[in-house]
Amino acid sequence: MAAHTSFLLARCLVRYLKDGSVSERTCRRVLKLARGCSTLPPGYVSQLVIPDGTMHSGPIAHYNKLVHSGLLHKDIQQKAALWQLEQLHGVIAGYTNIPLSFQWPTVKKKDSSLDDELTKVSGTENRFITMNKEKDGQASHRNFSEDVTSTEKRQKEDKECNAEKEPAKPPPPQGCYIHGGVGTGKTMLMDLFYSHVKNSRKKRLHFNSFMLDIHRRIHRLKQSLPKRLIGEMTMYDPIFPVAMEIATETCLLCLDEFQVVDIADAMILKQLFEGLFSCGVVLVATSNRPPEELYKNGLQRAAFVPFIGVLKEHCHIISLDTGIDYRRRKKVPPGKFYYISSEPDAEVAVNTLFDELAYRQNDVTRPRVLTVQGREVTLSRTCGTIADCTFQELCDQPLGASDYLEIARRFDTVIIRNVPRLKVGLKNQVRRLITLIDIFYDQKVRVVMLAEAPLHCLFVGGPLSGEEERDRLMLDELGLTNESWKRLTLFTAEEEIFAFQRTLSRLTEMQTEQYWVQGDRNQL
């Protein structure tokens, strides 16, 4: 009887996920019967219980409607992943991490060797002064051992006090980390889930925007510290306070395109997310990489690897890799918003398109100077919310995610001219183009491109060129051998080659009429 019930339960769930042919009522009856089966794994049935009303108003119900309307293709892997998000949706609505429960980080004595290493890698110092106000209001320095003693004493007192006054809080629900190939629907599923979460303390960001915000907060915290005096140096860690600050603002954090290519990000992620998780923040993330391949072959990856364990401990790992790029399935008339410079009248067509778009703007064609974190970014030709740029302006210059976010904030349409055939030797430019398209796609910026080659031939790979001398100097500075550097993505551009597939997929979707309608801010 038990074995038959287990089989029936599995069969009902598969049929429901696949085509919806089994009703919610039937699933509930089978689940009720399964509760009496001792042969099922402990907790198995409770994990599959369907909350009342979920099927009618949750992400799966919305997904089914989109499939039946023909806007989405039926995909059993997508629906299985959405089932996990449905379970989280059922509990996150009533969840809160307030009041925060956390453990104060202990104050550590300055380790000069570690500090020298951090300074060598990131060019920043992580040394601050610990100050304490006396009763008379005057600032005075205290002995380091006294700081440690008082901190440990405060931790113990807080722990005892909280144990007496507050009942133990239940652990936060596990989040979800969805990984898979490009165009498989990861972002769509996360956005579907996010739109149905009835919790005001939720936040959805692109990973690039999230890390920019983290570095801004760290910088602001450093600036607020008292100036360091000679002879009184202790280490102050700003990362955990930043995690606490974010936790006071949100209990659900959704991050799109989780990727690690920057050593400055890689070195702080473990501590940052340990702080977020300890403060009860629930993470839902999408990525092209499984956790084990994040920051693959990156510089000093050994220091990053512990973060993978932290991520797995607090998130369900969901694979969504059907091998289908749904963005490329959409039939797009070629050349509508992507032009090849060798074709007759291609540049004339782009000029005409700019004139048509500019005609609708209440502005004149002029240069524009944007101020980003105290720096000036000059765009030579703009009109209202339209920017007419060259590849050299956007990708040859030392611009980053913060610059592209400011461009996306100011303009809803960007023309990019003179895009060359990209090679591995141009990995800095390739990296900037990947970041630019990721941000524009996330912000629904419309892109017109005039390129040297067709979209599917835009990236040709090839050997490194023109940078050997610079790379050799960097190898000498880092003390790396000839064998060890060959495995680093810093020199192989493996990460850029991998990520550029996502760029091609997104550029394909960005040519569709549906995307262009969504990106028209004049209709808002």
Fold and architecture overview:
- By secondary structure, the chain is α/β, with parallel strands linked by helices.
- It is built from 24 helices and 15 strands.
- The protein has a 6-stranded mixed sheet, sandwiched between helices. Strands 4-5-6-3-7 form a 5-stranded parallel sheet.
- A hairpin with a 2-residue loop joins strand 10 (375-383) and strand 11 (386-390).
- The radius of gyration is 26 Å and the shape is globular.
Provide tags for this entry.
524 residues, alpha/beta, 6-stranded mixed beta sheet, 5-stranded parallel beta sheet
Tell me the layout of helices and strands.
Layout: H1 2-19, H2 24-34, H3 44-48, H4 54-57, H5 59-68, H6 76-92, H7 112-122, E1 131-133, E2 139-141, H8 144-165, E3 175-179, H9 186-196, E4 202-206, H10 207-224, H11 239-249, E5 252-256, H12 263-266, H13 269-278, E6 282-287, H14 305-314, E7 315-319, H15 326-329, E8 338-340, H16 346-359, E9 366-372, E10 375-383, E11 386-390, H17 391-396, H18 401-410, E12 413-419, E13 422-423, H19 427-442, E14 446-451, E15 459-461, H20 468-478, H21 482-485, H22 489-492, H23 494-509, H24 513-518
Parallel strand pairs: 3-6, 3-7, 4-5, 5-6, 8-14, 11-12, 12-14, 13-15
Antiparallel strand pairs: 1-2, 9-10, 10-11
Helix pairs in contact: 1-2, 6-9, 11-13, 13-14, 18-19, 19-23
The major β-sheet equals: 6 strands, mixed
Supply the helix-strand structural class. Answer: alpha/beta
Q: What is the alpha-carbon Rg in Å?
A: 26 Å
Average residue pLDDT: 76
Q: Uncertain runs with pLDDT below 50, 5 residues or more?
A: 1-10, 30-55, 104-149, 484-491
Helix fraction bin: 40-55%
Separate helix tally: 24
Number of strands: 15
For the record, give the distance between the C-alpha atoms at the N and C termini, rounded to a whole number.
59 Å
Q: Could you tell me the strand content as a percent range?
A: 5-15%
Global outline: globular
Write out the strand line-up for the largest beta sheet, numbering strands in chain order: 8-14-12-11-10-9
